Amino acid sequence: MSQKWKYKPKGMFREVYAEMIFSAESLRINARAIFFALGVGMVVGVIGGFFSRLLGLSDVFRNNVSWSIFLLPLVGLAIVWLYKKGGIKTAGGTDIVVQAARGEQPVSRLLAPVIFVSTLLTHFFGGSAGREGAALQLGGSLAEVVRHIFRLGDEFEDLAVMCGMSAGFSAVFGNQISAVIFALEISCVGMLPMGAFLPCVFSSIVAGEVAQLLGCHAVTFTLVSSPEDALFFVRVLILAVACGLLSIVVCYTFAGVRQLFERFFPDPYLRVVVGGCIVIALTLLLGTRYYLGSGQALIDQSIGQGQALPWDFALKMILTAITLGAGFKGGEIVPAFAIGASFGCVLGPVLGLDPAYAAAIGMVAVFCGVTNCPLTSLVLGFEVFSFCNPEGFLVAVAASFLVSGYSGLYSKQKFAFSKVADSTGTIPKEENIRL
User: Fold this and answer.
1) Is residue 99 within 8 Å of residue 111, measured between CB atoms?
2) Rounded to an integer, what distance in angstroms lies between the CA atom of residue 204 and that of residue 173?
3) Sequence-ordered list of residues with C-beta below 8 angstroms from that of 267, at least 6 positions apart, any chain
4) 82 has a pLDDT exceeding 80
5) d(CA 207, CA 170)
6) Best exposed site among 4, 29, 57, 326 by fewest CB in 10 Å?
7) Gap between the Cα atoms of 104 and 197, Å rounded
8) Is the CB of residue 342 less than 8 Å from the CB of residue 359?
């Protein structure tokens, strides 16, 4: 017995020493990656902050210059020409950076200026699109530029893209924590490349702080807390299930409209002109420009004022599907936020929930359903709504993630595990399950 006690401390100290050596070596190896992440954060923070400010001006221009929307088809021609001139696939979109985050394909350094200009043109002249697609692509492309400046090899390409995505999301949205989780979670659901965790943290924080210095701030809301009892969770669960089903409709509507445009108008120039004309016609028919742009006005009214019309979510979904399906640029996430918020604001009071809180639940639940990113959705709910009734968001994200199935905005996204709690619980990594 005495000999056993004699050798235990020696073995324990050896293990502690080995762990300390490993930690020191890890810091040494990652030092270059961390400095690189700081550089990405600075560059993307400046460009992303400037980009975000211009997007804010686009709302003022679009709403005050009545004739601007009639130039949308002409603007579409310019966007298609820019992509062809730069040799960039027009159909790839955010899927390009999703694949690049797994190291499956490179990101063009020309993507940054092209997506920057194309998204601004779409927003200034009346397209109904978001901004996160541009933020992710802008960040990924700029990170590639910084990688070449730092002379990092191709083995760092996936790390560069993830740092760029987290920096872009943070600079444009202002949600620094959500940006990190989203960059790690988006490419393969169920697997987080934790080796990129610390660099992504640095790039996200630096980019967010730089963007704030340029006058960009995160969107946050103050909600009224609801009493949490059994009936409250039942109501939230019903709303979340409805939002999960709605997310399937959103994804298939976006994909279906895009396929219809490509089928009936194979020429991208004709396609974008026809799409622009349809957006103009619908806007004139509706008599309002409320559904154009990113949809931030819908979000503010649904969550900030607790008001939404029953058809708001459907009209926003249709106009966004036409805009993006025709070839205009932007993103789908902020429109998905708007769709979920307006839907939750309408359905929530029917279930007995506060309309503003229900709008917040709808926004997060639909985001989870269309992106298949439950961790990001949960963190986003906590970050934007200051941990108001966090258990409600937890239930909503879990239910929406399960109900939404394997549909999603990003066709190149992969699933490492099954969503169903069966006897195996996993699916082979090489399979990419899609319904």
Assistant:
1) no
2) 11
3) none
4) yes
5) 6
6) 4
7) 20
8) yes
Write the CB contacts of 152 (distance below 8 Å, at least 6 apart in sequence). 32, 36, 160
Find residue 189's DSSP bridge partners: 415
Residues of each domain in the chain carrying CATH 1.10.3080.10: 21-213, 230-415
Rounded Cα distance between 44 and 200, Å, is 13
Identity of the residue numbered 114: V
Instruction: Look up residue 189 and give its DSSP letter.
Output: E
**What is the length of the chain?**
435
3-state secondary structure at position 425:
coil
* Domain 21-213 homologous superfamily, CATH: Clc chloride channel (1.10.3080.10)
The predicted pLDDT at position 145 comes to: 86
CA dist list (Å): 213 to 3, 41, 176, 207, 221: 63, 13, 14, 10, 21
pTM, two decimals, is 0.90
Q: What is the DSSP string of 163-184?
A: HHHHHHHHHHH--HHHHHHHHH
* Separation CA 195–CA 193 (nearest Å): 5
C-beta neighbour count of 19 within 10 angstroms: 10
The string of pLDDT tens digits covering residues 279-321 is 999 999 999 999 999 999 999 999 999 999 999 999 999 999 9
Q: Are 272 and 77 spatial neighbours (Cβ–Cβ below 8 Å)? A: yes
Q: Helices marked H in 126-267 — which ranges?
A: 132-149, 157-173, 176-185, 197-213, 230-264
Of 73, 66, 62, 67, the residue nearest 275 (C-alpha): 73
- 151-201 pLDDT, tens per residue? 777 777 888 899 999 999 999 888 999 999 999 999 888 888 988 999 999
CA distance 37 to 207: 10
- CATH number for the domain running over 230-415: 1.10.3080.10
List Cβ neighbours of 429 (8 Å cut-off, separation of 6 or more): 414, 416
CA-derived radius of gyration, the chain: 23
Stated as kind and residue range, the H or E segment containing 81 is helix 72-86
What pLDDT digit, counting tens, does each position of 394-404 carry?
999 999 999 99
